[in-house]
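User: You have something folded?
Assistant:
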Amino acid sequence: MTKHARVYDAVEQALRSTDLLIQTGGFSAIILDFGDLPREVVARIELSTWHRYRVASEQTQSSIVLLSQDGGIRQAGYSIPKHG
């Protein structure tokens, strides 16, 4: 398995885990730390994923925090503060 394949597998696993945490409920915040990932990896995550997380977090009153090198989901219309 190539390094890129391992990275994408890890991202997919993190996204699936986030889905499970949201569905389970009881968490006030879920943090996805993608700060070490290349920007193009985060940018490849489908916009429907972020929309699904937004809707689910509103229903469960949870916050989902994405840490990344870049505001990778700006095109989805979400407010993302940029620091640095």
User: Anything to note?
Assistant: Residues 54 and 66 are 12 Å apart (CA to CA). The helical segments are 3-24, 39-43, 47-60. The chain is about 50% helix and 10% strand.
